[in-house]
Amino acid sequence: MITRSRQVALALTALLAAGAACQARGHQPDARPAPPAADTGAFTLVATGDVLPHDSVLERARFDAGGTGHDFRPMLAGVRPVVAAADLALCHLDTVYGADGDHAGRPAFGSPPQMAEALAATGYDGCATASGHSLDDGAEGIARTLDALDRAGIRHAGTARTEAEAHTAGVLHAGTAQVAHLSYTTHTDGHPLPPGRPWAVGLLDEARIIEDARAARAAGADVVVVSLHWGTEWQDEPDERQAALARSLTAARSGTLPAVDLILGTHAHVPQAYEKVNGTWVVYGMGDQIAGETADDRGRRDPRANQSSLARFTFAPPGKPGERWRVTRAEFLPLLFDVDAGRVVDLNRVLDEGADVRAVRDRVRDVVLARGAARDGLVMAR
Prior knowledge:
Largest sheet: 9 strands, mixed
CATH superfamily: Metallo-dependent phosphatases
CATH topology: Purple Acid Phosphatase, chain A, domain 2
CATH class: Alpha Beta
Shape: globular
Structural class: alpha/beta
Helix content: 25-40%
Strand content: 25-35%
Radius of gyration: 19 Å
Distance between the termini: 52 Å
């Protein structure tokens, strides 16, 4: 019998062997400047929070498209310079794509597939797709979403159309590194897994994550990135389960190397802290990058739902054989989704232009740094 670990390793080995033939980018080669890897082999990785288009967001995208279809590119234009400049950019899709014309922003989400085109145009290379809304439209919703991402040239991890796809770790190329991207969610918002398809959504399980990470490492991945849809909604502080899982995942080994090189968290709807745990960076929660006005668990409108952070990590090759790729620079950018304008805003940039957003920028900064990340070198980028 071939175990899940062996299946992942075999599938990943085939992908790695494809080398340059496996194109990680779905946008044109001139969409971003030449990476710094040409001289050093280093690469920059950018990640952002939940893409969760509520009805007001869909209405704005329809307006930006001139009333026909949906255009999300203007919505993301504010972060395109940072995203497109990275060697590897990862997003998190919190929703599935709806059937033609069947789009809704709550409670069961069905986003327009044009979102995938906008993500590609912004410079994203891959997206985590395991979330609480992964099964809002059953297996058909998963297939529709992954088909749209494929058409846009965006890699994906976390949900699957077939069992073989579920056991194939996504591999992206950045600089001279081959990066495995894994994605899991704590729940599917009460929706059961489709009959006969227990593999359709990557459910968060510590042993499974470590097994998959080790399989990816054994198959040749230089860097293993794990996206986790976890945590307690509306809570700035990571909960006890997040903290405990972060400790165990970052302590797990794959031979002489850590099993996991970076953890990227989503789901809480609010920004959460970054922390270096056992020598590995953990982003407990980036917040919602795109979302409409949102009420918290008490039914009150909570402006934190429109605040988020963009994470940027620079990885350098090992100093000597047998060592890990190391993070040489850790940065974050405070972001805001302007619900009136329907735009993602780089708070530092608009602050420099005179916008009165200092209090919001400072709140995001304080939350991100709340667990002492500045002592380990995390800085707010400009």
